[in-house]
Amino acid sequence: MLFRPLGTDEIPISDRGNQPNTKDHFGIVPSMDFFLRVENSERRSHFFHSAQPGEIVLGELNSKTVSGLYFQLLCLEGGRSLYLEDLGLNAYCPISQMIPAIDPNNPNRIFSPGDLVRLEILSVKPELEKIVVGMKGNALTLEMKHSAQLGLVFEQDFPLPYKTAAFERKSKVTKTYEELLDECLGFHNPNSVTCLASAMGILNNRNTLMTGLRGVFPENEKGTTLRRVQNGRWAHGSVAEGIRHFKSGNLTEAFQCLNKALSIDGENVEGLVARGALRFLYSFLLIME
Question: pLDDT tens-digit profile of 10-26?
Answer without folding.
Answer: 544 444 444 544 567 88
